[in-house]
Amino acid sequence: MNKTREVIPGLLLCLVGAAASFVVDTFIEKATGISVLLLVAIILGSIVGNIWTIPGRMLPGVAVSSKIILKIGVALLGLGVPAATVLALGWPVLIVAVLTVVLGFAATLILAPVFGLRRQQALLIGAGCSICGAAAIGAVDGVLTKKKEHEFVTAIAVIALLGTILLALAPVIGYLAGWDPRQEGIFIGLSVHEVSQVVAAGGLAGAAVLPIAVTVKLGRVLLLAPMMMILAALERRHAARAAAAGEITGALPPLVPAFVAAFIGLVLLRTFVSLPTSLIDTVGATQHWMFAAAMFAQGTGVTAATIRAAGSRPFLFAIAVTVVVATTGVLGALLA
């Protein structure tokens, strides 16, 4: 009971921050037609963290929001992925979706030294580009061992900015290429980072494009679980070597993190059990609140100094990985 009471003040702070983020994002969306909720939450959190010293009694709750609430949000994402609908796309599209994720991660590992990024930071950004934006970044953060908080927040901010640019460009590219709705939907679903950004881009492209784009995107989201298990296995190897060298102490990370197992379970539940639409919508809305609160919490730890230190390299790196991902999106459209 005492531990529960300890986290309440910080959780309330992050909940208020999430509410403020929704308000600001509503005005932005009305003016531009584009939602940038997570970016707004990070910026508001950063503003609060830089102008106000958060009281010690609130820190436990802020920590819970930034880590545990984020993982719960990632797990709940599984309820929005009906595997049967994704499989109905056909094997050619599914193979290109797998290729998109694999090549995205390959580019991440190859290009990280070129841009002078730590492997951990590169994996955060690469996951956001290759799979599903902030949710994938949160999932990767949950399995990494040597990680830095400002690198997580930088990855979220970079993906939010780049994804917003891409959601405006993707429909234009499809139009100029003269693709039919199926081709354009496949391209948008394979190229754009966030699920919400895919919805926005598909809406801009047209009513016939939107459902195809979202379904293809869910195919990429479905790959979150196997990619996290592979990454967890690799992290265990890195952690074992570091422990042998005396660089880190403590237990090895689990091969299948609990939130990944929960994600898989909810995908299976959505696939084999008929659930009320109202339940799915409610869980989806709750997930958005969780992500907003988690991003606000993460933002409170970002200082002006860490932002300056990050420089332009993470953004340029994200552009490079996005080009690889978008190229496979073009391939998918051409093969459709």
Low-pLDDT windows of residues: none
Strand residues, percent: under 5%
Write the element-wise H/E pattern from the N-terminal end onward.
Answer: HHHHHHHHHHHHHHHH
General form? globular
The overall strand count is 0
Helix content: over 70%
Rg (C-alpha, Å): 19 Å
Instruction: Compute the number of structural domains.
Output: 1
Distinct helical segment count: 16
Subcellular location: Cell membrane
Protein name: Sulfate exporter family transporter
Family: Belongs to the UPF0324 family.
Membrane topology: Multi-pass membrane protein
Write up this protein:
This protein is an all-alpha fold. 79% of the residues lie in helices and 0% in strands. The chain has one domain (78-294, 310-335). It has helices spanning 2-32, 37-51, 59-76, 83-87, 91-111, 119-132, 134-143, 149-177, 181-191, 195-205, 210-222, 224-244, 258-272, 277-299, 304-310, 313-335. The protein is globular.
What's the quick description here?
It is a multi-pass membrane protein. With about 325 residues, the protein is an all-alpha fold.
Secondary-structure map:
Layout: H1 2-32, H2 37-51, H3 59-76, H4 83-87, H5 91-111, H6 119-132, H7 134-143, H8 149-177, H9 181-191, H10 195-205, H11 210-222, H12 224-244, H13 258-272, H14 277-299, H15 304-310, H16 313-335
What attributes characterize this protein structure?
globular; 79% helix; 0% strand; mainly alpha; 336 residues
